[in-house]
Amino acid sequence: MLEIRNLTKIYDDGTEALKNVSFKVEDGEFLVIIGLSGSGKSTLLRCINRLIEPTDGEILWNGKDVAKADGRDLREIRRQIGMIFQHFNLVKRSSVLTNVLSGRLGYVSPWSSILHHFPSEDRKRAYEALEMVGITDQAEKRADELSGGQQQRVGIARALMQEPSMILADEPVASLDPVLAHSILGYLEDINKQRNITIMCSLHYLDLVQQYSSRVIGLRGGNLVYEGSNADIRKMTDNQFKEIYGEEAVRVNAGSISGGADE
Amino acid sequence: MSNTNTKKIKPLVPPVAAAVLSAIIPGLGQLLSFRIRRGLLLFFSLVSIMGLFIWRLAVIAHREIGIADRLAKSFSREPFFIIFICLAIFALWLWIIYDAFKTAGGSADKSLGIFVLILVMFFSLGWQISEINVGKMIREFPEAWPPLSRILWPWEAAVTRDTSSVTAEAAILVDDTKNPPPIPEYIEGEPYIKSTPTYGKMSTLDADNNMILGDTIHLEGSGFEPDTETFIYWEDSVGNEFRPRQNGKYVTLTTDASGGFSFDLVIPYRLTPPSAVGQQIHHVQARQISEVGPVKASEPLRLTIVLMLETIFMGMMATFFGIIFAIPLSFLAARNLMSGSWITVTIYYIIRTIFNITRSIEPMIWALIAVVWVGLGPFAGIIALTIHTIAALGKLYSESIESIDPGPIEAIQATGANRLQTIMFAVVPQMIPPFVSFTIYRWDINVRMSTVIGMVGGGGIGFLLVQYIRLLDYKSAGIAVWFIAITVAILDYVSSKIRERFV
């Protein structure tokens, strides 16, 4: 279980990305974070595994404060939390298999791993992960030879290699075609339902939010402005959506945002 | 001009005054109309053109004193140049006056034409200053062609064969008739030469250094190679030999079909050595030189190959040492890694500055310094190239570090990897392609540079090339030039192929 208490992040340039944000994530949830670009979604996700140092507040992961963890403890926590990214963040020149295997780095011995030596059960596990996302035949290719959708599936396979209890997904479909979005979110849904892995995912499109989320939180200007269940979000009106996204977003993006909402 | 009034201040003086002022001091009229840049540009253009022109007059007529003499002398030497510049200066002056008038009236013309004229003036001054002389280039081509052709096609000098010589000699008593030496003993099958008589007077010089021919001796030879060039040598009483001339040419015979010859030789002129006393016995020799054995590489070819190898390895060693120093330094010169605190930023700026200064000094100049340090030879060249390589590669490496994608780094960190693992999995794979590519490219440059670095004493083939050119041995120089060209071309191709695979 993850509990965020009074999380605040102020960047060096003075930007307040998160202001006193508190919420809870139960095990097995598919929590979706909505909000404009710059509302603090990415910062929030990255504070959870400390890719970004929080300025203040507590991040309780199964009772341990991530914000205070150091060195070995932090790495231990990180390996329990997988992460996938908008731009996939694969090592482009390495093979797909190496990218997937790098998900095991938190487990294997550092010295043998820097020589790219992994135990054979890890290799077996990597092929299983690739099979789960349906790209076993691409294992030997260089990561940048794959299409965007395939690269994101490699990202998912890499996260699965960590045997995580939770996966953070930072706009996982924002740089993919809408058609591929369902495929990628479908994998996340399977992972969530079949393996009981908590998913915390930021998304833009309301129809995707309505279809996949079990619960939704909304951020605006670093403040938590909305919290609701899947049932709530299905009932959400255009006006409530405007509240979260702000007037200008609606004007520019009205079509896509209100696409699935009841008028 | 209602719209210009909003942004321009009114000219200080009326048009006519502006024109007069610009006639006295070019550009002043424009300045007073607040066309500051235009005025200054025109003023400095005219002043610098006039200054350069006066300097060129002094150079062209450097023996003359006084302006009039210099002008006259220069005019006789470079009439077109003088006329053109004088007219152009006058035209420019007139235009500046006209422009001052128009500017003060508030309607400056488009000034493209006049700036083209100024550019043309600078280029014709440049032509004069850099002593470009196309006529000379064409005129002297016929004289330059023989050495050039030897450089272009030097391959006759690339091979050689062993020679063996066949010699026979006969003793001659000079300037005396008593007790002449006997004719040599004839041995069947051996080359043989006999002189009749075996004595005679040498050629001498009179008071006006005119040659007075000496006695003629009749030479008969046999037992030589048939139909072969045969050289006559003369050896004086102390054993110094030379080739005598007859009718202005070295005496050269061709043997007949049976390997014999007969020839009348005038006894040549030779100063008798002061140490010589008593009867002077000289020797006349007939000598055939023939090439024997297989064709083999000549000395220049072998030296060229050896020094070409040295050159390639110089480039390799300089690249190797360059990499060793450039890699750690490049991390200190990468802005993204060094933006942490003011100390690291200072280090970043210091190293960047050192890189830039070092890189702007050519390897040839570093070689001159290194020669002073470690003496002539390839080591000096390696030092010079290494210094330049460190700076060049350091800059390229640090730029590639600056441009790495942070995405994979955060992705690998998120898996729970430690620092070392993150570097090995996320940083190194991104760095290898640019590092390999830049390194190969630099090796290519280093070999190319080391072909010339020898010219200033830094070892390698350049050293040999300069030596051959100074000895006017153009064929050997040509061999070196060819080898440099071939090596560089191959290297260029190989390095581009390797780099292609890593990009």
Automatic annotation (TrEMBL), chain A:
A Pfam family per the record: ABC_tran
Biological source species: Candidatus Thalassospirochaeta sargassi
Gene of this entry: phnC
Domain of life (superkingdom): Bacteria
Protein name: Phosphonate ABC transporter ATP-binding protein
Annotated ranges, domain ABC transporter: 2-246
PROSITE patterns hit by this protein: ABC_TRANSPORTER_1, ABC_TRANSPORTER_2
GO molecular function: ABC-type phosphonate transporter activity; ATP binding; ATP hydrolysis activity
Gene Ontology CC: membrane
Record keyword Nucleotide-binding present: yes
Keyword Hydrolase belongs to the record: no
Protein keywords: ATP-binding, Cell membrane, Membrane, Nucleotide-binding, Translocase, Transport
Automatic annotation (TrEMBL), chain B:
Record-linked InterPro entries: MetI-like (IPR000515), MetI-like_sf (IPR035906), PhnE/PtxC (IPR005769)
Transmembrane segments: 12-34, 40-59, 80-98, 110-129, 305-327, 333-351, 363-387, 423-441, 453-471, 477-494
UniProt keywords, alphabetically: Cell membrane, Membrane, Transmembrane, Transmembrane helix, Transport
Protein's cellular compartments: Cell membrane
Organism: Candidatus Thalassospirochaeta sargassi
Identification of the protein by name: Phosphonate ABC transporter, permease protein PhnE
Domain ABC transmembrane type-1, chain residue ranges per copy: 308-495
Alphabetical list of NCBIfam families matching this protein: PhnE (TIGR01097)
Pfam families: BPD_transp_1
Family: Belongs to the binding-protein-dependent transport system permease family.
Membrane topology value: Multi-pass membrane protein
Gene Ontology molecular function, alphabetical: ABC-type phosphonate transporter activity
Gene3D superfamilies: MetI-like (1.10.3720.10)
One GO cellular component, as annotated: plasma membrane
